[in-house]
Amino acid sequence: xxxxxxxxxxxFSHWNPFQAFETREDALKAAKAGVWVCAFLGASYILQIxxxxxxxxxxxxxxxxxxxxxxxxxxxALAAFLAWRIWAKQGFWSALFLxxxxxxxxxxxxxxxxxxxxxxxxxxxxxxxxxxxxxILCVRxxxxxxxxxxxxxxx
Length: 155
Fold this sequence. Notes:
Blueprint: H1 24-32, H2 34-55, H3 66-89, H4 92-115, H5 122-152
């Protein structure tokens, strides 16, 4: 109890990756934030497919050979699968794989900017920061929900 009256539970925020989850619903909301990361990854690969189809090369200037196109389709299917696993089952391993994939995407983007192959702006930094927060929330929440399911399972 505080001077102002009884303490109210803190409202869940998608912008604090290290907040405590007060309820199971908060953990579910946090886990489902990972779907936005999957949507970003899927959309970025769909954009590559569109560029290859209309320009004959992707946004990095690589020519549209079959392996590039097939790889992009596989990435879109994988992003959709991970989104489904995280949305429906809150799978910890799916969330962990998503976090690794997203970290590799960020590393590739940073290395391309440092080497001068690409340019970026402050908007990209804000977007990647927001997606990083969502990825951390997703992994933490899926871990907590996994632990909760294991404790509830009959032994």
